[in-house]
Amino acid sequence: MSIKELIGQTTSLEVARKAPFGYFLTDGNEDVLLHINETEREYEEGERLEVFLFHDSQGRMIASTKIPEISVGRYGWVKVTDVNPKIGVFLDIGMQKDLLLGADDLPAHKSVWPEPGDMVYITLRVNRNYLLYAKLASDQIIQSISVKATRQAFNKNVQGHIYRTAKVGSWVYTIEGFKGFIHESQRQQEPRLGQKIEGRIIDVKEDGTVNISLLARKEESLDQDGEIIYEYLMSRNGAMPYGDKSMPEDIKERFGLSKGSFKRALGKLMKEGKVYQENGWTYVKKD
Fold it and tell me: Which residue spans adopt a coiled-coil conformation according to this UniProt entry (predicted)?
């Protein structure tokens, strides 16, 4: 097997000779440069080294003793370091140079592209010019590393990272190893690919996968919605032209809430004695 066919993988090579800028390694047929920047110590001729092979920015095949966490066929979670809207996102795989996950492999809508700090599950792929790129894990790969959830997981809070996005929903791999789905109705906004999310399990399927909601639990939601309404009231000196009879579209435009959510939150505020309604208006109760 030619050395270039091992691009993106680790292999054992022998130190053939030292050079001013590093070492030349050999498999007995071909030589490859181990640059001084890719070494961790000095080496002797005849010593065998475990190295990772790749091409540098000038197209030269290079060896490195700094073995990344992933390789061709081996997957891992890696951190996003930078975003270039024209070509894709860059990932830290443990090498001096970050790896590109190209725009063609990312969601069509840039609003859900990963941001620096997000984590994606990838392997390496080698193109026809023997250059390395990142490749996102498929749904089948995620399935292969996931564990089945039991009914005891129902209603539990979970954290995880988004590994696939679509208009209908988002797919997540949780810290526990569960493979989960977030339907579009169970999120206020679409999370990014690679984003860390926290939600709760609202269903455990027969195959051990889970459905997750990113929406607040009912009591939490009531408190949050009530706070939005109360803060708006206070910004208007304790009076607003909105109440039970207001049009749904007016409520949605002003508060970002459905009419049902608005009425439940308003009802809770009234029950707590914080507000009252009169002639279609809502007022803050004075002490």
Answer: none
Task: Write the CATH number of the domain with boundaries 76-137.
Answer: 2.40.50.140
Residues 148-213: name the CATH superfamily. Answer: Nucleic acid-binding proteins (2.40.50.140)
Per-residue pLDDT of 121-143, as tens digits, reads: 999 998 888 888 999 999 999 99
Q: Model confidence over 168-201: pLDDT tens digits? A: 999 999 999 999 999 998 888 899 999 999 999 9
Residues 202-220 have a mean pLDDT of: 85
Higher pLDDT, 242 or 217: 242
Please compute the mean of the pLDDT values over residues 245-252 and round it to a whole number: 91
Give CA–CA dist 191/111, Å, rounded.
9
Domain extents in the chain: 3-64, 76-137, 148-213, 218-284
What is 3-64's CATH number? 2.40.50.140
pLDDT at 112 over 80: yes
The pLDDT of residue 96: 81
Using H for helix, E for strand and C for coil, what is the string for the chain?
Answer: CCHHHHCCCEEEEEEEEEECCEEEEECCCCEEEEEHHHCCCCCCCCCEEEEEEEECCCCCEEEECCCCCCEECECEEEEEEEEECCCEEEEECCCCCCEEEEHHHCCCCHHHCCCCCCEEEEEEEECCCCCEEEEECCHHHHHHHCCCCCHHHCCCEEEEEEEEEECCEEEEEECCCCEEEEEHHHCCCCCCCCCEEEEEEEEECCCCCEEEECCCCHHHHHHHHHHHHHHHHHHCCCEECCCCCCCHHHHHHHHCCCHHHHHHHHHHHHHCCCEEEECCEEEECCC
Coil/strand/helix, residue 14: strand
Q: Look at domain 218-284 and name its CATH class.
A: mainly alpha
